Amino acid sequence: MTVQTVAWAPSGALRILDQTLLPVEERYLDLETVEAVIEAIRSLRVRGAPAIGVAAAMGLVSSLRRSFHAPREAFLAVVEDGAQRIAAARPTAVNLGWAMERMQRVARATQGEAAAIFETLLQEAQAIWREDAAMCRAMGEHGQVVMKKRGVKGERGEAGEKGEKGEKGEKGEIRVLTHCNAGALATGGIGTALGVIYTAVERGKRVHVYADETRPLLQGSRLTAWELSKAGIPYTVLPDSAAASLLARGDVDLVLVGADRVARNGDTANKVGTYPLAIAAHRHAIPFYVVAPTTSFDPSCPTGNEIPIEQRGAAEVTHPLGRQAAPEGSAVFNPAFDVTPAELVAGYVTEKGILRPPFGPP
What we know:
The protein has 362 residues and is an alpha/beta fold.
């Protein structure tokens, strides 16, 4: 993949690909202030749990470039204020708070004055980015165990009634259904769920991806399809409401999705629409896997009931892509995420391998 979601600008600012403009325009923005980083995260210019963790760390450093001549305690106060404000930008993805806590902890532990702290934070942000890219690659490798045709024994021996050829699938072609965008655009590397697919293609496997359009902001049709097109991987975009019918037809071998937070018992928060997809996959005996780095796991959260679910603005539903689609004054229910119960998940593909709950102590 040639997509680079985050980078350092020559000036030292955080550079991001503005995902709100895709697939029509590929524009990069340089962010130099805490306010700019917060706006980019809230407006989904940068999105995806791993990516916003990486962007938050790099953006915090970028915002500190004009402050490192301050006295040590004053500089630490600026670091903590910026980190706490950025961490509050979106509530559901655990990576955001994790990255900001890590940066604050490193700042407090660093000896010396502001310049030394700044340099350490710069290296820490770079490490977070590098680690995320490495975790994406490891998830891609571990995920190959589940990249099987239905009817071919996999990591848990999942087997359906289909043989190697579905009604519309070509012989040997693995048909994967995904929701939202869990690719390079959502991470600092090749992606989570899409990273498994990219790795499969690198290994010579033939894959066809079915991408839910993902209402109301269409991350599947705007972003996942854009990534797959650039990668040269065959794909089909479908309305979210058509996914159950596709599964019922037997035209899917497995479902791969990302995650914004995984509770200790395995309940998983992901883009709204994931839960009904998991129910439909379970009904039709299609393996449903969550692909996420362990930085997206929250052992302090016992179950999905404790995961905070972000509620977004009404305009995303009433005026999708800026065009009115509902009467003025319509009441709107617009959660950004839903929670899939652990019992609907076949396994969790992580950089450490395929795991199963419970996930560590509180």
